[in-house]
Specification:
Blueprint lengths: L1 H20 L1 H21 L7 E7 L4 H12 L3 E6 L3 H10 L4 E5 L3 H5 L7 E6 L3 H9 L11 H6 L3 E6 L6 H23 L1 H8 L2 H5 L5 H31 L7 H25 L3 H17 L12 H9 L1 H13 L9 H21 L6
Parallel strand pairs: 1-2, 1-3, 4-5
Antiparallel strand pairs: 3-4
Helix pairs in contact: 2-13, 8-11, 8-12, 8-13, 8-15, 11-12, 12-13, 12-15, 12-16, 15-16
Length: about 375
Amino acid sequence: MNSFLSRLSAIIKKEVLQLGRDRLTFGMVFGLPIIQILLFGYAINTDVRNLNTALADQAGTHLSRQFVSELRASQVVDIIATAEDAAELEAMLRRGEISIGIMIPHDFDRRVVDQDRAAVHILVDGSDPTILGVANQLRFMPLRFDVSPLRQAKQELIEVRPYYNPERRTPVNIVPGLMGIILMMTMMLFTAVAIVRERERGNLEMLINTPLSSAELMIGKVAPYVVIGLLQLAIILGVGQLLFDVPIRGSVVDLYIAGCAFIAANLALGLLISTATHTQFQAMQMTVFILMPSILLSGFMFPFDGMPIIAQYIGEILPTTHFIRLTRGIMLREAPIGELTYDLFYLVGFTLVAMTVAATRFTKRLD
């Protein structure tokens, strides 16, 4: 028994020392649960508030301003812009700048007491059923200014107009976002182990004796995966249309341009991870570490506007956030790529920065 306990304590001591030397694993032991608690505790919020909203108040009366004040007090909307008319609100919705547009017509005061017409039109990006559900709650908002008692009882003051997904079908919202999650997971994982695998198999020594520069080696490692990523994109689009009837209202060419930019960004990120880790297990750990925030903070599962400000700042850094905006904008809102240049340019810039850092970190040494 003493011999058994001695051998057991020796192997336990060895594992503890190994964990202590492996800083990444040691950090994951404590960091991963803390980060998950923070993400689920703060970022995951089904009680959506402060949705980006634009206002077109053509009436400009005391009554319309009072109505807007009550909308603000509900904390459901955050009025960040103004517009001249409904057409401008629709353009802002299409570009993804807002989630809700409030249209108050010039004869608002008269409509308030008119039982036959809605006094306010709320334009909603219905591609996310959660946002549409929140907007519908505004129809039953208690009003404190003087309106006809009959009108208050009928609750017809506010008309909600859902755009892009009036049937509130969940797959219409999920599939374009899932496209980003699948591509990110596979592309980043493939390349995260690329350099590490060469080192572990002893192939890095052969690469050392080649005239390749670090940048050339990096580009050569990721080029085949670009084709794989585009093939995955085609598969997801095909399955989404055949099985779930997910529309592609915009240009397929624009969608593939966005896809190429996103694939490149994730391949560059994977290579950066590969240069920062020493084993394939560590590379996979880092991939999981980035995967969780990308799912929760990108707007894939929960409305981006409803998350806390700090969570939104983190989400803005992630390439998945920008690609989901691109896919939903092109596929659902029929937005041309020219109206979504901010997200496209971010992906291009992210790729250049990540590739530059990865090439700089990579040295043609066995260690």
